[in-house]
UniProtKB/TrEMBL annotation:
Occurrences of domain PRC-barrel (ranges): 6-77
Name under which the protein is recorded: DUF2382 domain-containing protein
Annotated organism of origin: Quadrisphaera setariae
Chain residue ranges for the region called Disordered: 71-247, 268-304
Domain DUF2382, first and last residues per copy: 179-290
Tree of life domain: Bacteria
Record's compositionally biased regions (Low complexity): 107-117, 143-164
Cellular-component GO terms for this entry: plasma membrane light-harvesting complex
SUPFAM superfamilies on file: PRC-barrel domain
Feature: compositional bias, Basic and acidic residues: 76-86, 178-197, 216-232
UniProt GO BP: photosynthesis, light reaction
Length: 304
């Protein structure tokens, strides 16, 4: 593709339009030529889902490099341009609105501007500048759609009706002109099930308990007293010299233990409800529809 202000129509048809900041806007849909100079003056940009919208953008101030067409406008400015049917012609009112939107001043076209072919595509009638069938892109069934136009060599028809060629299903019987996309939805619920069992069992264990118990015991105490008149008789009542023993019984308290069985508590087992949040993950399937665009695109130009 050439650079500068001289544009190649075939290269423009393959180009992708970028805004002044480099962001991508969309693919070029159609090219409109100036009849006086036979040079490209306008292009339409395919925007929206599957390129369902076409917005007019002037080529004034635009530059090209490889397959990129950069226009001196923002992405929002292009998308907010007045909606104009890319039907091969621009009315003076439509061109005026576009000029005002892009700040190009008043248009110079008087009357209805009609697009003319710049090549030999089958979508145009030779010598009339009228389109035999407008290429609107691929519908959801993957088939090209068109609109009927005037016959070869005829002039512009006024008030003629158009007939749309409906798409057909290539993988089975044709139902309608659209393809249904379906997807699985994840539904999450709960079910009650047995999670386990709990039992109460009683068994005997032995443990050691320690307590302090006060006790007492007797100890031997030897007392000595001199012989006096008061105890002389008791002291001389026995033999003078002899072997003799005297015994005293000593006593003490010792701890003794015993046990008794007493009930201390009642134990039973029950259940309670506890709420918690759990994360559930599952695989779901969905259908995706891709656009396979292999139909030719027609160029149009406008007359001044």
């Amino acid at each position: 593709m050439a650079t500068g202000t001289t544009f190649d129509v075939d290269a423009l048809r393959r180009a992708t339009v970028h805004a002044s900041d480099g962001s991508k806007i969309g693919k070029v849909g159609e090219v409109y030529l100036d009849d006086a100079t036979d040079r490209p003056e306008w292009v339409t940009v395919r925007t929206g889902l599957f390129g369902s919208w076409e917005t007019f953008v002037p080529l004034a101030g635009a530059t090209t490099s490889d397959d990129e067409l950069r226009v001196p406008y923002s992405k929002d400015q292009v998308k907010d341009a007045p909606r104009t049917d890319a039907d091969g012609q621009l009315t003076p009112e439509e061109e005026e609105r576009l000029h005002q939107h892009y700040g190009l001043g008043a248009g110079t076209t008087t009357g209805t501007t009609t697009g003319t072919t710049t090549g030999t595509g089958a979508g145009y009638t030779e010598g009339t500048g009228q389109r035999r069938g407008e290429y609107e892109g691929l519908d959801d069934l993957g088939a090209a759609r068109g609109e009927a136009g005037p016959a070869a060599g005829a002039g512009t028809a006024t008030g003629t009706s158009t007939t749309r060629a409906e798409g057909h299903d290539t993988s089975g019987p044709t139902t309608d002109d659209a393809m249904t996309r379906s997807e699985e939805r994840l539904e999450v619920g709960t079910e009650r099930r047995e999670a386990g069992r709990a039992r109460l069992r009683k068994h005997v264990v032995t443990e050691t308990q320690t307590q302090q118990v006060p006790t007492s015991h007797e100890e031997v105490v030897v007392e000595r007293e001199p012989i006096t008149d008061r105890n002389r008789g008791a002291a001389t009542s026995g033999p003078g010299l002899s072997d003799e023993e005297h015994e005293v019984v000593l006593h003490e308290e010792v701890p003794v233990t015993s046990t008794t069985v007493e009930p201390v508590e009642r134990v039973r087992v029950g259940t309670r409800e506890v709420s918690e949040e759990r994360t559930v993950s599952a695989d779901v399937r969905k259908e995706e529809i891709d656009l396979d665009e292999d139909a030719p695109r027609a160029d149009t130009r406008r007359e001044r």
